[in-house]
User: What shape does this take?
Amino acid sequence: MARPFKIGIKSKQEIAILRDAGKILSAIVESLKRSLKSGMTTREIDALADSLIRKYNVVSAFKGYRGYPGNVCVSVNEEVVHGIPGAKVIKDGDIVSIDAGIIYREYYSDMAVTVGIGTIDPVLQKLIETTQSSLSLGIEQARAGNHLFDISHAVQNKVESNGFSVVREFVGHGIGRHLHEDPEIPNFGEPHEGPILEEGMVFAIEPMVNVGDWRTKILNDGWTVVTADRKPSAHFEHTVVVLKKGAEILTQYYG
Ligand code: MF3
Ligand code: CO
Assistant: This one.
């Protein structure tokens, strides 16, 4: 049997810090999103992330994490997650996933978005919309009294009923004093199973959704996760806190 999850409950004070961390991160990701343009290299996106992270006086949660070299992850088309910024040029018709995490006053926040560059194929548009709404539906299940895998099931159901597949080798996670805390949050599962959710639990929920098969491979750089069939993949992530009546999205951008 799998080891039991020890899910931390954050205090009101901790949640207040996580709320500020989420606000800052959402502003950083919003700026990155708006600056994406055909012809840019993924390294330029990372450089921009670096300057935004400095501007807000926070620290990248990813740079140096297990030796990860970038400030953010930039994953293009068939790249699922953990794309290392480099010489790759993004072009019209691509889909680009930006995953960013910061540390603010010793607390972590984590989020990801996928954006289409210029005019994209309708299938890719549907992929992006489905992934984003699967995240919203998962978040809706993150309320006190529900089971953890109610979140997983809601994501999987949305994705598969639209003809796409959910990645299984990578999952969401608890977050707080560390980037990755218990529990693991798969994007597939049975409803009414898993630990019961309580107020004050903080989760990074992150569906990774493929046009084709769910299987993935890691490239020789040791990081970049690609779909095994090299078909495109999308990724959205929010950091949320479980409350009595529902979840509060800490990384929601309000402008
Ligand atoms: N959002 C990803 C995660 O939660 C980011 C990790 S990238 C790494 O796992 F570079 F930090 F590993
Ligand atoms: Co994450």
Observations:
- The radius of gyration is 17 Å.
- Residues 202 and 241 are 4 Å apart (CA to CA).
- The longest helix spans residues 12-35.
